[in-house]
Amino acid sequence: MKTKLLTLAAAMFITFSASAVDIIELDTPSLDNTVQKVYSVYCPFCYKYEKAVTPNLIKNLPSGTTFQAICLENKGALGVESCEVLAAAQVLSHKKYKAAKLAMYAAVHDQKLKNVKGSGAIKGDLAAIGMKAAGMSQAEFKKALHTDKAQDKLAYDRTIALTIAKKKGIPAIVVNGNKMIDTKTVGSLKALDSAIEQYLGE
Q1: Spatial separation of the C-alpha atoms in residues 45 and 27, rounded to whole Å
Q2: Domains of the chain and any CATH numbers
Q3: 44: preceding bond cis by omega (within 30 degrees)
Q4: Beta strand spans in 156-196 (E)
Q5: Are 35 and 62 in contact (CB under 8 A)?
Q6: What's the longest Cα–Cα distance across the chain?
Q7: Are 37 and 171 in contact (CB under 8 A)?
Q8: CB–CB of 130/101 below 8 Å?
Q9: Three-state SS for 22?
């Protein structure tokens, strides 16, 4: 499995330029010691990042750095409910959050279920898949969703996710709130780690 992920990571970066990593300045609030990733479960490249890039990125973040995953609800037929499930699951535990996210990614991209995509999407079906994977009942989902933590998360993501995504698509990696790494100029996972560390220090 490890070899497979490394191969996938290599394939993702093989077409990227070997030149210096470029930064795109964003008109978003600055943050201290923070790395954000904007994603959607409907984004195939986000799914690839989830499996082959993000774990390495998080593992190698400098001590004291906060990592935030920002859910884009404006992509996909059921984008809003996917973000709601993830916000609720995150309130309960990171394990439930990850299980829900991977299950919804798989439903869209691996299983290619027609009831969660395009004109055939049925409201509530993608949420049900995420909740089942997380072991989260409808009652638990509603209770967690209406907590301040989940509502604040949804409101925050809503304020910046689309602004960032419109700049250069997703997945988007943003350092300190307003510096987006142009991944097309990243030559390797190591180069990505180095760029993040560099711009965190500025």
Answers
A1: 24
A2: 13-200 (3.40.30.10)
A3: no
A4: 172-175, 179-182
A5: no
A6: 51
A7: yes
A8: yes
A9: strand
Show Cβ contacts of residue 116 under 8 Å, excluding neighbours closer than 6 positions: 77, 78, 104, 107, 108, 122, 125, 126, 129
Exposed e or buried b for every residue in 96-126, given b needs 16+ CB within 10 A? bbbbbbbbbbbbbbeeebebbbeeebeeebb
Nearest 5°: the CA angle 54, 29, 85 is 50
Six-digit token pair at 59?
Answer: 């593992």
* Contacts for 66 with CB less than 8 Å, ≥ 6 apart: 31, 33, 34, 35
CB 99 within 8 A of CB 134: yes
Residue whose entry in the numeric block shows the structure tokens 């190591």: 190
Per-residue pLDDT 10s for the chain (202 aa) are 545 544 445 445 433 444 478 999 999 999 999 999 999 999 999 999 999 999 999 999 999 999 999 999 999 999 999 999 999 999 999 999 999 999 999 999 999 999 999 999 999 999 999 999 999 999 999 999 999 999 999 999 999 999 999 999 999 999 999 999 998 888 889 999 999 999 998 7
